[in-house]
Write a sequence for this structure.
């Protein structure tokens, strides 16, 4: 039994954390494979709300193997404080392991992220300013500092010096910033290294062992398909590949280790930061979705832009990720909206129609959604636990999505709570096969 990849099928914040937490119960390992603490994954358990940025969403099960793979960029201060907070709340974090090959977010990455956005002015991407882009840039330039470097003061100092040298000009405005002092930085990162040392490991080997022993391994995506640096709405994207293919690279496994790929999608769409959004609602309906869905960023607190479900973009995500199943979250948020438009095509400024996601950025920026109107429902669905509990119109909404995309809906979210989920046979099979 299997490698199951869970990826965001839209622009992030689809509910990946909640779904990962649910499936992690019977999993042998949960591994993050890309992104960093730009991610914000929320898990609600009774009255307790947990927000994870780096720690994989399986950590609430005592001793569960939760791995931060080589493809992730790690801010050692953030992971240290996240672990501290969890311990403070009585959570056993002994199952956490961090790849020695993961790259580190350094103080200058944060400053450069900030400076880059300020320089772009009106054209800014709206990054989370967590240093993600500059860190991945250093990785590609082979100037990156990796988790293993925290354990050797001499290497650490040499690498920091080499990494900062080509950035001298862009860092000049921050010359007096105490976080950039070489000795202080080396000292601080050595201390962080000491604290993280028990968690540093060869994470790919742990994944191989779990897979070789027929265990269930969950590959927990961050961000979403349309934020992918190669396939998303470039340049309004993140600096990694959130699509399923990256699970192999970022965790150290082969394509044959992946048995299933599930996309997580909201029953509508949200986006944080700048960039095209064909089905965006910049009116009271957008405000209504934001209020009903609590659409404010987990990481930055920014209001999320909201819009109708976009099946053109979702079909693109199905193909790109090779999705074998779809998880629809937040169906409850649509209650009371009748009729319910669903984006099934795009229309360009000259009336051109697009059934497929356009590859050219000037087109993606100009198109708007064309909609098919479906019937809405008015009944409270937050207590539904099977498809039959849903009003007919809600069942029809899901059936329309399945039909359009050609893949099955495997789980349906009807509220933020752990129990507020409709499980299908397919999802139960994955859970039970792992036991
Ligand atoms: P992630 O980044 O993909 O893990 O998603 P976030 O945690 O950033 O955002 C999803 C938000 O929706 C969180 O506040 C969740 O608690 C909440 N949520 C998840 N599933 C549902 C659902 O089915 N219904 C409702 N109302 N909220 C949900
Ligand atoms: P989760 O895992 C939503 C967005 C930022 C910005 C762009 C680039 O919670 O779904 P970055 O800091 O990555 O360089 O910012 O990507 N972004 C996200 N949007 N959810 C996320 O993560 C995101 N991580 C980055 O808002 O538009
Ligand atoms: Mg999020």
């Amino acid at each position: 039994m299997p490698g199951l990849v869970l990826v965001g099928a839209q622009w992030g914040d689809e509910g990946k954390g909640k779904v990962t937490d649910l499936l992690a119960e019977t999993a042998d390992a949960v591994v993050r494979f890309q992104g960093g603490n730009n991610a914000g994954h929320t898990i609600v358990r009774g009255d307790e709300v947990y927000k994870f940025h780096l720690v994989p969403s399986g950590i609430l099960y005592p001793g569960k193997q939760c791995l931060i793979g080589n493809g992730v960029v790690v801010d050692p201060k953030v992971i240290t404080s996240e672990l501290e907070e969890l311990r403070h709340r009585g959570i056993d974090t002994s199952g956490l392991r961090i790849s020695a090959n993961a790259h580190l977010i350094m103080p200058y990455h944060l400053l450069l992220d900030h400076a880059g956005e300020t320089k772009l002015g009106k054209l800014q991407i709206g990054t989370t300013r967590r240093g993600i882009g500059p860190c991945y840039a250093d990785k590609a330039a082979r100037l990156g500092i990796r988790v293993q470097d925290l354990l050797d003061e001499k290497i650490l100092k040499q690498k920091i010096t080499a990494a900062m040298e080509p950035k001298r000009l862009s860092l000049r405005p921050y010359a007096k910033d105490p976080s950039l002092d070489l000795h202080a930085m080396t000292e601080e990162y050595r201390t962080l290294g000491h604290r993280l040392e028990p968690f540093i490991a060869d994470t790919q080997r742990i994944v191989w062992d779990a897979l070789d022993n027929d265990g269930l391994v969950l590959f927990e995506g961050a961000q979403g398909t349309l934020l992918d640096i190669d396939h998303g709405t470039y340049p309004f994207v993140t600096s990694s590949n959130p699509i399923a293919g990256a699970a192999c690279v970022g965790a150290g496994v082969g394509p044959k280790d992946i048995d299933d790929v599930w996309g997580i999608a909201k029953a509508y769409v949200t986006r944080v930061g700048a960039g095209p959004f064909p089905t965006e609602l910049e009116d009271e309906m957008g405000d209504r979705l934001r209020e009903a869905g609590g659409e404010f960023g987990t990481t930055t607190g920014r209001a999320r832009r909201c819009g109708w479900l976009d099946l053109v973009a979702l079909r693109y995500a199905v193909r790109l990720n090779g999705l074998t199943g779809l998880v629809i979250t937040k169906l409850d948020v649509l209650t009371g909206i009748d009729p319910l438009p669903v984006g099934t095509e795009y229309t360009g400024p000259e009336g051109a129609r697009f059934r497929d996601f356009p590859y050219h950025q000037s087109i993606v920026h100009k198109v708007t959604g064309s909609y098919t109107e479906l019937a809405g429902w008015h009944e409270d669905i937050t207590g539904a636990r099977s498809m039959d509990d849903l009003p007919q119109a809600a069942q029809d909404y899901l059936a329309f999505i399945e039909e359009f995309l050609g893949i099955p809906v495997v789980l349906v979210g009807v509220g933020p709570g752990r129990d507020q989920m409709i499980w299908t046979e397919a999802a139960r099979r994955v859970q039970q096969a792992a036991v």
